[in-house]
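Response to reviewer comment R2.3. The reviewers asked that we include at least one raw input/output pair. We reproduce the pair for Delta-1-pyrroline-5-carboxylate synthase here without editing.
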Amino acid sequence: IRCWSNIPFITVPLSRAHGKSFAHRSELKHAKRIVVKLGSAVVTRGDECGLALGRLASIVEQVSMLQNQGREMMIVTSGAVAFGKQRLRHEILLSQSVRQALHSGQSQLKDMAIPVLEARACAAAGQSGLMALYEAMFTQYSICAAQILVTNLDFHDEQKRRNLNGTLHELLRMNIVPIINTNDAVVPPPEPNSDLQGVNVISVKDNDSLAARLAVEMKTDLLIVLSDVEGLFDSPPGSDDAKLIDIFYPGDQQSVTFGTKSRVGMGGMEAKVKAALWALQGGTSVVIANGTHPKISGHVITDIVEGKKVGTFFSEVKPAGPTVEQQAEMARAGGRTLAALQPEQRAEIIYRLADLLTDQREEILLANKKDLEEAENKGRLALPLLKRLSLSTSKLNSLAIGLRQIAASSQDSVGRVIRRTRIAKDLDLEQVTVPIGVLLVIFESRPDCLPQVSALAIASGNGLLLKGGKEAAHSNQILHHLTQEALSIHGVRDAVQLVNTREEVEDLCRLDKLIDLIIPRGSSQLVRNIQKAAKGIPVMGHSEGICHVYVDTDASVEKVTRIIRDSKCEYPAACNALETLLIHRDLLRTPLFDQIIDMLRVEQVKIHAGPKFASYLTFSPSEVKSLRTEYGDLECCIEVVDSVKEAVEHIHKYGSSHTDVIITENEKTAEFFLQHVDSACVFWNASTRFSDGYRFGLGAEVGISTSRIHARGPVGIEGLLTTKWLLRGDNHVVSDFSEHGSMKYLHESLPLPQRNAN
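Raw output as returned:
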């Protein structure tokens, strides 16, 4: 028997076989029976007198939602003392004001003192009101709640424990939410403390321990402990080096320094950890999280149950490798070392990786074959995605060529001086290129993306976190191994990390203190999800690739069908494939128009008619549902416009600012199109498919950006660099440049150093 807070804990609970807790957060969505423990800091207001009604209503809403999903919810709550204190203070003030008004006059009212209120009296006055409040709130969701008050003595008596267990099971069977609290009105008086000003508060450790005890007794799947801190930190929250612990394992107590308790209650984090570890030992998973933060309290409970990275998760299963936070820190340290290497050394790493792609192609293709077989057997990938997943000897050769291009062009990327200014005599300013920091690249079904992005990160001196799709797990594993082998020749193996843990993309996007830029490579839905999830981290990319080709009246017959065929049919799943074909009205019912339609039919391209195009036809193809559609397959929309100006307006209204093309022999019309279309890539008489880092001579790309800040279009090495300012002086101070100072600003532009011709 172990005793915490005067409650005896039996190591093997009554009628409970030793269960097994969930090993990973992602499994929490399977939790059937859940206990939510609400600490005093969560339930009470900031003035510590009365309840935080809005916060409590939000918690009740979340519990009701989970209850109505078929889960069995229980609440262990504090708050009776605070609620009772509010009521008793009101009564005391009222009675005092009447007495003093009768005997001393109004002038004495302001000098009235509130006596110290005994905690048990506060609890007695507050219990009924607290329960009435819970009942009123749960009634709004057609849920019944029942109150159960317990004391330490109830756990000493075997029969009482059996009765409590039976009562709780019966309530859960009837779909009633039990609300459990210690019966603070009859417990022994506590030691005086000042947690609630003027009130001796019953120790919160009672409710922490009570929640853990009930969770194990009731064979609960999950215990959620809500407090006023984000979770468990490795040192007291608020200290400079304090870091939130994502997952806490038994035996990690030595790595944690506990600070003071929360603003109310006696338990503090140390008591919560002890209770959590005891519950974990009994087979109940535990999460400690913040229930007071206004931005997350409205969904903290449901987020935890959905497996999102909220608070600290207690797990008995320690992963073999580092956490993603540790990987990000390793990538940052490795990236800084990488950036400090000589350009020739970074190029040597990339050349080595290019050689490994061809030397180890049999092993790479064997791993890729496993991915393809698993994907086909599970039937979870569409044909275009299977094509993206597939690697071949020719693809690996092309990758190696691209990597060598990157190595050759990276000699003068990091540390390049792009501006020099003489501020004053012996005071020179330089603006130089530097890496962005740590990149997170998330990609789907594209194992060839891994060496491309790795090479660009190496060339630009950035640390890199890679999160690939599970459908390419075998391919990604060997390609990452080869990347680290190449990095090892200069001791920077850790600069590129592959995330293999069960991290959800949304959780990765919250690591704003560890990641500097997110680059998604995948479907438009993936990009939109990441842009939505990444609250504090910039996202480089495009959500859609709605590319247009406009056929002008002066278009060449020979060029039109070739360019359209290549733009649509060469790789229809690509983001730079044609999706909408704009035809000048004068070309309708001409031989050129017939040739375009015949070619699309031969290539088995399904045609959707835009509204104007459909109005010209007696029997039209299926009318398009939206002119903002990215088909990603052998489908396209055809629409009619009256002029190049209308074509530009259509592109601005329905396009995605990715890649747009004009086919014409009229140079004036072409220049109008090139200058007025506001897209990342605008072409004249060339296929949309040229919008690609390799084809632009960048060696490779991390993606195509339609953003208007920093980088736009295919993003190569230059797009992964930012700048910093270097100022070299000699005892200069700003006061010397004042009106009566001895120095004057020069602001002279200085010549740039010669770039490496190689």
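The radius of gyration is 34 Å. The chain has 22 helices and 26 strands. Further pairs are available on request from the corresponding author.
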